[in-house]
# Entry
Amino acid sequence: MTRDSPKGTLRDALKGADVFIGLSVGNVVTADDLDLMAPDRIVFALANPDPEVPPELGTAHSAIFATGRSDYPNQINNALAFPGIFRGALDVQASEINEAMKLAAAQAIAHVIPEGTLSEDYIIPSVFDKAVVPCVARAVAAAARASGVARRRAKADDSPILE
# Structure
């Protein structure tokens, strides 16, 4: 088996990069590090409770900045996905949660944002947006049926409980 052997530093990896997705530890990226990246950079600093770069710096040095923190715009939180994924899987008694269902959930979340409202500070709906759970549940149930893991077919009048 061959494994990648990364060489270089985080700074080396950031040089010219368009996107940074951090899932590590807080405060490992500086403003100078971000300035090494391409113009109009996108930064997802998702370590919690302290993101890889402080939000004040990330926002000032990025075209789009997202964090796991709820006190800043563009909070990336798994609470957006899980209630709807579980509801959709339960509604069709799915035998598993597969990649098609996870992809359907991600696409549903992306489509909750109304046309014309997408902006640098609004790339993902809030965890409090009541449209998210039923939208994700419907998409996940449909993906479960399409991928053959649904053990229950929806009836014409069926709809997710959480509407």
Remarks:
- The two ends are 48 Å apart (CA to CA).
- Helices lie at 10-14, 31-35, 55-60, 82-91, 99-112, 132-146.
- The first helix runs from residue 10 to 14.
- Strands lie at 19-22, 42-45, 64-67.
